[in-house]
Amino acid sequence: MIPPVADRFVAGEHPAQALEHARQLNERDIGAIMNLLGEHYHERGPAEEDAATYRRLLADIGRSPLDACVSVKPSQIGVQVEEAVFRENLREVVTQADRHGVFVWLDMEDHTTVDATLEAFCDLVVEHPDVGLCLQANMKRTPEDLARLADLPGKVRLVKGAYDPPPELAYREKSRVNEAYRELLEQAFRTFDGGVAVGSHDPVMVAHARDLHEAYGTDFEVQMLMGVREGAQTDLARDLPVYQYVPYGTKWLSYFYRRLMENKENALFAARAVVSG
Ligand SMILES: Cc1cc2nc3c(=O)[nH]c(=O)nc-3n(C[C@H](O)[C@H](O)[C@H](O)COP(=O)(O)OP(=O)(O)OC[C@H]3O[C@@H](n4cnc5c(N)ncnc54)[C@H](O)[C@@H]3O)c2cc1C
Hints:
48% helix, globular, TIM Barrel, alpha/beta, binds flavin-adenine dinucleotide
């Protein structure tokens, strides 16, 4: 069972709980991006197991009336095992998603995996357009990667970046990452047909996206994490497509720890909950 406090950020250990959370989100006019927790697998077995779990989840979503999609981590389906294993698992997940009419996002992880993730995505999206890729604004290479995606089908999710790449590859100062994010949003709205996802809780970036939509007409959606700015998610859903990233599964502890560490408000929230019993 997910203990109180952690259950603000994680929907449950079982798919049924995550699907129930998605149903409740849909009642607030918010779509769900389901994420089975798991990452950094170095052996084939767990990567294949999680790919199979995703295939079952996709069938469950497809048979339901839910507005829900999935988001998969490359290192969860084998990118650190062998590129061929990753590609095979990804292809099977996306083929199953096509069968059930469900969209698949591919998360972007640390800098060592960016090439393999981007190449696999570019090959796959030609045959399976209902897929999207996450790109990170802190990575200096991202404007070029984004330019490459603009000629392809599929969607792009822009995030500021949750990893800590070496300084020669990435911007470190928050203000520089914010500037890069603004520029990338502009580039995406100007060059993309497929649709842009603003994967950010930052109200300044959401406002910027609204202005860019006015200027270029490009479709966009806002994506935020479960448990973060929930009120803003409900408010934004009144006039924008909003999707919430919904992690679930037994491997919730490290995800919960990361949420606490990245934000003072979350750490205080947890500390207050512990003190008040
Ligand atoms: C849907 C989604 C998918 C993501 N996928 C990836 C991915 O595939 N790869 C990757 O590297 N990163 C991913 N991220 C994480 C992302 O890179 C950032 O680390 C994270 O979103 C924080 O950046 P921010 O844009 O929200 O802005 P920030 O500048 O960090 O925050 C702006 C404001 O939002 C609020 N806020 C932000 N984060 C939190 C929080 N955790 N708790 C409470 N308040 C908060 C605060 O009010 C803060 O002032 C994803 C994020 C989202 C929302």
